[in-house]
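Module 6 notes. Inverse folding takes a fixed backbone as the condition and produces residue identities as the prediction. Think of it as a translation problem where the source language is geometry and the target language is the twenty amino acids. Below is one complete input and output pair. Work through it position by position during the lab.
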């Protein structure tokens, strides 16, 4: 899992996979772009689904960190 804002995503030329819908805790519906790409950290690379949102911090999921050799 990797989530990045539009501002960071567009220069990367990510491959678009689709639009994903999520229901938030308050019951509202949110849509975001879903892309596929690879992440490299300390020489290790992993393929990952990347959520692209209008405004968000860059978030890296724990399973992605484990794939990249981090505990």
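Target side of the pair, the amino acids:
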């Amino acid at each position: 899992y990797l989530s990045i804002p539009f501002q960071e995503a567009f220069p990367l030329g990510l491959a678009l996979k689709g639009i994903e819908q999520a229901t938030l805790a308050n019951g509202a519906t949110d849509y975001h772009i879903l892309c596929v790409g690879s992440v490299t950290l300390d020489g290790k690379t992993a393929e990952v689904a990347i959520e692209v949102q209008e405004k968000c911090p860059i978030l890296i999921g724990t399973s992605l960190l484990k794939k990249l050799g981090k505990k």
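Reference fact for the lab report: The longest strand covers residues 29-41.
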